[in-house]
Design a protein that fits this description.
Strand order of the largest sheet: 1-2-5-11-6
Oligomer: single chain
Length: about 280
């Protein structure tokens, strides 16, 4: 059987830590600006029509959470003043302070960002889909940021299934604490493949025909966020999904923004201009 090659590099990332109180910090990494081809190439195994056409996108630098938002971070922000809606302080099915928060809706995630913004005076939000894929790839063009395939040594997914020349592995059937795998990408981000799906800010579109090329969120209209009617989307795959859905280019639509499932979480981004001088 061919050997699986996982590419690793040692890099130093620029970052800051947002203090949420009680020793809880939100680690935010600087994602440098650049250009990339968004979507999957025609020869990529298990690619879907929604991942095409590949197109060049220019990204301005921004900051992104090193990990998906944890339950400890969620609880700290849920205790802050309400902006638009109430938040359950402990919504997750799989309990653990360092596990990713799950069973949070798209609206819940947006409220989290709004409370964090009000508290810190810095502009937090969900990532645009383009920002998410650019950050996930971190300069790579392979199906996963660590190479051509994926194994359960490096990510949490339904490892009873294989991708390409991969091998079957451990199917954990639950979330794992963030950063459990020694598999950060070139930007220093962890858990971009598997563990929990991550909400993005954009409205769903069936393909990339007419998509923005500046990294901004692709929105159908400018209605109030709590009156959004468009279909939401998620990235990254999860602990319960097959490996092909964990690819860098893979995207999944979801009909209702108010759904709360134990395979869906999120991470945050922040506009860099008002943070790093």
């Amino acid at each position: 059987m061919p050997k699986i090659v996982i590419n690793r590099t040692q890099k130093t990332a620029q970052y800051y830590v947002e203090d949420l109180g009680d020793g809880i910090g939100l680690h935010m990494l600087l994602i440098p600006g650049g250009s990339f081809m968004m979507g999957s190439p025609k020869g990529e195994l298990e690619r879907r029509k929604s991942e095409s056409p590949q197109h060049l996108v220019n990204i301005q630098q921004f900051c992104m959470g090193k990990y998906p938002v944890t339950q400890a971070q969620w609880k700290a922000v849920a205790a802050l003043a309400k902006v638009n809606k109430d938040l359950d302080a402990e919504p997750s099915n799989f309990k653990g302070e360092q596990r990713p928060v799950e069973q949070v809706s798209w609206y819940d995630a947006v409220e989290f960002c709004q409370r964090l913004t009000a508290h810190t005076k810095r502009p937090y939000s969900l990532p645009s889909e383009a920002e998410w894929e650019y950050a996930c790839r971190a300069g790579t063009t392979t199906p996963f940021h660590f190479g051509e395939t994926i194994t359960s040594e490096f990510a949490n997914y339904r490892a009873t299934s294989i991708y390409r020349r991969g091998v079957k592995g451990t199917y954990r059937e639950e979330t794992t604490p963030v950063g459990s795998f020694n598999a950060a990408n070139n930007f220093g981000l962890y858990d971009m493949h598997g563990n929990v799906w991550e909400w993005c800010l954009d409205d769903w579109h069936d393909n990339y025909e007419g998509a923005p090329t500046d990294g901004s969120a692709w929105l159908i209209d400018n209605d109030n966020v709590y009156k959004k009617k468009g279909i939401a989307l998620m990235r990254g795959g999860s602990w319960l999904i097959n490996p092909d859905y964990c690819r860098s280019a893979s995207r999944l639509n979801y009909d209702t923004r108010d759904s709360r499932l134990n395979g869906i979480g999120f991470r945050v981004v922040c506009a860099v201009g008002r943070i790093l001088q």
